[in-house]
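TASK: fixed-backbone design
INPUT:
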């Protein structure tokens, strides 16, 4: 039996139901994207007024489309959605995406209409995404069945083994764009909207064992089925694939906003957290933190413990970073083994500090060999489970600093993040381009790194409970 994930992410045929001949219209974009990105399967349109739409064969009714049809993208107005859904179900369509809003999120008037969509889906076996969503894309299969304007330009997008599933279309696409700016992409994307049938949890569950996915990112507004969430978290952990979840509705105000947005019930936040903690899933508090965490996890490195070594050229910045690290559950202690301390002290200026944080002082700017020495000793130190470099400004000579940081990063398998604050921002971008997890602010970097550490230790934590 074909899974729901396969129907949306690996369809053999796609019908755009209500397709417009104008590729700039919402109802024309999915067809335009499928053609633009070279979807290799069969593509058809349903349009009662045309024989062809954007050069694709069009039919007056879905029943006339040469089958079988894996995916129908329904782009008609809300008033015509129920008829379209029923016709697709009657024609044996495998799955359908509904863009239109005006259903459960409107309250009493739209809820019965959405309930009817659910009834048709359950009765026919056709899986439904939405309503009130912007669709899906699968980069490996070139199946861009969405109307998102994120794909209007022709710029090259990063490729990363990430699946991004969001109940909110804006949260998902805004985060996707932010990830692109960090050098990260997503191979699979889905916006589940009102979740009349398919939920974010089920869509993610269908991607856990996909070999093209190493990180799972999910945005949830309503936690309908905590058992399903627990199974997803358990499966992700067993497959060693971080599950990064962003959930709204933590407060009464947020829960009201969720109900107005997708008609969802936010649920008990404490129970939600407990469900995630049971299997080491990672919860984040914002879209920026979501992207930051994905960046920190993107190299697949894991920490053997909580011991963090901070290397900086400013004692003041190092102290701030140490405070934040301890608040997040990391340890920032001086090395107890005297050998490494003495070796480092011998290679740094007499006024530098080899306590942790290690302060190379501003002398590093004029003698980059100090950076090489500090990185080498720290990376090899047995009491260092993770490493953070904190720098700033220094645009002059930044190319050489970046080169040495990249070499230091590649010399170790330990989690390693760089903070480069201020300046033009160009060195930070060069680090990202080289695949180094790099951040403009220490708090962001520390939060992301702490999540990698916590995830790395999840089997130890589970065994101690």
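OUTPUT:
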């Amino acid at each position: 039996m074909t899974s729901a994930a396969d129907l949306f992410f690996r369809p053999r045929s796609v019908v755009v139901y209500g397709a417009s001949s104008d590729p700039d219209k919402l109802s024309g974009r999915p067809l335009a994207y499928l053609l633009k990105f070279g979807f290799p399967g069969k593509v058809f349109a349903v349009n009662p007024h045309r024989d062809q739409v954007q050069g694709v064969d069009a039919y007056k009714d879905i029943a006339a489309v040469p089958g079988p049809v894996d995916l129908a993208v329904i782009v008609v107005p809300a008033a015509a959605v129920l008829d379209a859904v029923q016709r697709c179900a009657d024609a044996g369509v495998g799955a359908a995406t509904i863009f239109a809003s005006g259903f459960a999120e409107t309250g009493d008037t739209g809820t019965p209409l959405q309930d009817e969509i659910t009834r048709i889906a359950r009765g026919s076996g056709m899986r439904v995404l939405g309503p009130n969503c912007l669709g899906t894309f699968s980069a490996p299969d070139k199946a861009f069945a969405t109307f998102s304007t994120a794909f209007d330009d022709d710029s090259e997008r990063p490729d990363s083994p990430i699946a991004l599933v969001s109940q909110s279309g804006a949260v998902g696409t805004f985060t996707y764009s932010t990830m692109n700016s960090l050098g990260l992409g997503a191979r699979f994307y889905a916006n589940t909207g009102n979740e009349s049938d398919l939920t974010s949890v089920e869509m993610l569950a269908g991607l856990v064992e996909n070999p093209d996915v190493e990180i799972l990112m999910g945005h949830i507004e309503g936690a309908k089925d905590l058992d399903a969430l627990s199974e997803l978290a358990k499966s992700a952990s067993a497959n060693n694939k971080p599950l990064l979840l962003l959930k709204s509705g933590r407060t009464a105000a947020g829960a009201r906003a969720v109900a107005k947005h997708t008609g969802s019930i936010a649920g008990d936040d404490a129970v939600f957290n407990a469900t995630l903690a049971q299997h080491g899933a990672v919860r984040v508090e914002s879209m920026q933190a979501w992207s930051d965490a994905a960046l920190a996890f993107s190299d697949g490195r894991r920490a053997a413990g909580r011991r963090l070594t901070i290397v900086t050229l400013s004692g003041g910045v190092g102290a701030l970073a140490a405070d934040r690290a301890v608040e997040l559950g990391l340890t920032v202690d001086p090395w107890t083994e005297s050998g490494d301390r003495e070796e480092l002290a011998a290679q740094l200026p007499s006024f530098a500090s080899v306590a942790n944080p290690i302060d190379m002082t501003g002398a590093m700017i004029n003698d980059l060999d100090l950076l090489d020495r500090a990185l080498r000793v720290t990376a090899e130190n047995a009491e260092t489970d993770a490493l953070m470099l904190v720098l700033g400004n220094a645009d002059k000579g930044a190319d050489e600093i970046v080169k040495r940081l990249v070499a230091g990063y590649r010399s170790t398998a330990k989690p390693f993040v760089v903070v480069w604050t201020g300046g033009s921002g160009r060195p930070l971008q060069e680090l990202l381009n080289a695949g180094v997890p790099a951040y403009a602010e220490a708090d962001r970097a520390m939060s992301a790194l702490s999540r990698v550490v916590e995830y790395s230790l999840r089997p130890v934590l589970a065994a101690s409970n």
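COMMENT: The first strand starts at residue 13 and ends at 17.
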